[in-house]
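Following up on my earlier thread - several people asked me to post the actual chain instead of describing it. Fair enough. Here it is, all 315 residues.
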Amino acid sequence: MIGIDVGGANLKLVGGDGAIVHYCPLWEDASLEDLLGVYRGQHNDTAAAVVMSGELADCFRTKMEGITWIVDSVRKAFPDALFYGTDGRFHDRAVPQLAAANWLAAADWLRGEHSDAVWVDMGSTTTDIIPLGNFDGLLGLTDFQRLQRGYLVYTGLLRTPIAMQLASVTLRGKPTPLAAEHFAIAADAYLVLGEISTVDYTCDTPDRGEKTVEGSLRRLSRVVCADLDEVRAEGAKEVARQFRDAQLHAIRRAVAAAKKTGGVREVIVSGIGSPLLARELPATDLRESLGPVADALPAHAVREVALRTVGSSPR
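Reply from S.P.:
Thanks for posting it. Predicted structure:
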């Protein structure tokens, strides 16, 4: 069996041979069907358990339109695929409960060994912050409700625009407002700070330019309406540092709130941002026990939950 997580920006696949992550921007007409078809042709997996969050991509007029498109695309490669919903059940057709259930599948699996934990998953775009002690209380939550509760912080390691996280920075001792433009993203900040490599910069750059330290420094300079020779590398890096501090502050604040649910003894982290969070929160990095599949945890989890519940009737 294969576990599939269809996000708006990334497609994550977990099978018996490990995890695969494809950059798959649905808003740019990425061919989900083709990617899955290639995988099916190269592997022996015939059954699939699926979660999604890509239905929110703005190429779809409504979430239900996105859900239907994703279900149809997956089923062309895996006709018998089952889809996990926010009701904690598997479904064999497009239903509203499939919207953004990827985090719940992971919580469903993790609660077995980590019922006294807050789980934090930092991906390219968002960070999930989920107290695992009351699974029934998580059932049915939409992303809208999770935003309100602080269980979803819309900030990530790669795609978050710098100007979305910060209104201003302090440069040369002076407050400096940021241009509210899509000039630079989190990946630029973390590349120049040495937190990621050019290989890890898997999404598109804002200017469609080079994924290099120099390219990122130029983009970071532009958020304060400057060329790199005006603010120098140190000024651009200072923008990056202040972005990182603001992002981590937002995540720490949400984690602290989640801990107040009671009975929390540990914080566990996963996703591509887990090395950063494990050090800065601090927390236990699930990569240490799970290896690379921790970067695609919902895909791994939905596969495990499906294997555990084989025989349950889909609705």
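The chain has a mean pLDDT of 95. That should answer part of your original question.
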